């Protein structure tokens, strides 16, 4: 996965907005106004932060070397994924999907209903 395929994948999800609230070097994807993925544009290798179920966060870090505690994020809920080729794109997409789904589930019921109509 490269930055362009990451971008395309995130934007293919319903109601996603691409923003730069932290400056031009940090790409941020939101749904319902809440962040589900952040990506540094000034690092040598592609890496991004995704939200994760606290029950899985430690398990993923222990199982995969490319999964680290969320850089500049709440370590209980966020992981940093280093795209180093050690896991396949489908697993990377699964982690992105999980993050998106966690954020959607946290939205008010009315916002979730509006999202269903956009699928």
UniProtKB/TrEMBL annotation:
Tell me which Pfam families the record gives. Answer: YjbR
Instruction: Output the Gene3D superfamilies linked to this UniProt entry.
Output: 3.90.1150.30
- InterPro entries, A to Z: YjbR (IPR007351), YjbR-like_sf (IPR038056), YjbR/MT2646/Rv2570-like (IPR058532)
State what protein this is by name: MmcQ-like protein
Taxonomic lineage from the root: Bacteria, Pseudomonadati, Bacteroidota, Chitinophagia, Chitinophagales
């Amino acid at each position: 996965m490269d930055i362009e395929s990451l971008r395309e994948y995130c934007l293919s999800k319903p109601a996603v907005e691409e923003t730069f609230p932290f400056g031009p070097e940090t790409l941020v994807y939101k749904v319902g106004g809440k962040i589900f993925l952040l990506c540094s544009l000034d690092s040598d290798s592609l890496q991004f932060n995704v939200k994760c179920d606290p029950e899985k966060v430690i398990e993923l870090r222990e199982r995969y070397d490319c999964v680290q505690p969320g850089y500049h994020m709440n370590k209980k809920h966020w992981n940093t994924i280093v795209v180093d080729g050690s896991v396949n794109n489908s697993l990377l997409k699964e982690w992105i999907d999980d993050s998106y789904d966690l954020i959607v589930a946290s939205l008010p019921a009315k916002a979730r209903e509006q999202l269903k109509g956009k699928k």
